[in-house]
Amino acid sequence: MMRETGILVRPSRAGDAPALRAILNDTFESTWRPQITAEAARAYLEDDRPGAYVASNGVEFWVAERADEVVGLVHWRHDFVHALHVRAAHARTGVGARLMDEAEAAIAAAGHAEARLETDTFNQRSQAFYAARGYREAARYPDEEWASGLTTLLLVKPLRLSGRQP
């Protein structure tokens, strides 16, 4: 756990589930919904994708707290960052950077030489965030999650392996 600029980063707890679902819904409304078809949005809401994602993976999340409120989450497995979400009200305040610092450090400590993640071509803000952190495009392909004709970018960043001797 680290505390910096009022941000506490820690592993998620069972009691965080409602806040995690709220964060996922917040980023869906502010980022994804304007870009996807009405049919894809309806399926997202009807399937309760945030609830299902939190229920199946929430124990792996790390969260960011500010003033005792969960305001962001990151989820990675092996060398792949599956999710980084920050409440819109806390965007561009260092929350996403702190969460990615945690994920990248853990990925490197696990012996992975690079971190990988996906974003979409429409999401210029996330592309700029990741580019500033050293991520580069490795591939692009159709986004099958939303079935909306979007294009996904695979981004990769080399990591410095911690605690390893050459």
Question: Could you characterize the architecture of this molecule?
Answer:
This protein is α+β, with helices and mostly antiparallel strands and 166 residues long. Helix content is 35%, strand content 31%. It is built from five helices and eight strands, in the order ββαααβββαβαββ. An eight-stranded mixed beta sheet has the order 1-2-3-4-5-6-8-7. Strand 5, helix 4 and strand 6 form a beta-alpha-beta unit. The chain is globular.
How large a portion of the residues is in β-strands, by DSSP E? 25-35%
The first-level CATH class name of the domain at 2-112 = Alpha Beta
Summing up helix and strand content along with how strands pair, one would put the structural category as: alpha+beta
What integer is the average pLDDT?
Answer: 91
**What's the architecture of the domain at 2-112, going by CATH?**
3-Layer(aba) Sandwich
The CATH H-level homologous superfamily of the domain at 2-112: Gcn5-related N-acetyltransferase (GNAT)
What's the tally of helices? 5
- Annotation, overall tally of beta strands: 8
Sheet with most strands: 8 strands, mixed
Which overall shape is indicated by the principal axes computed on the Cα atoms?
globular
The rounded Rg comes to 16 Å
**Remind me, CATH topology of the domain at 2-112?**
Aminopeptidase
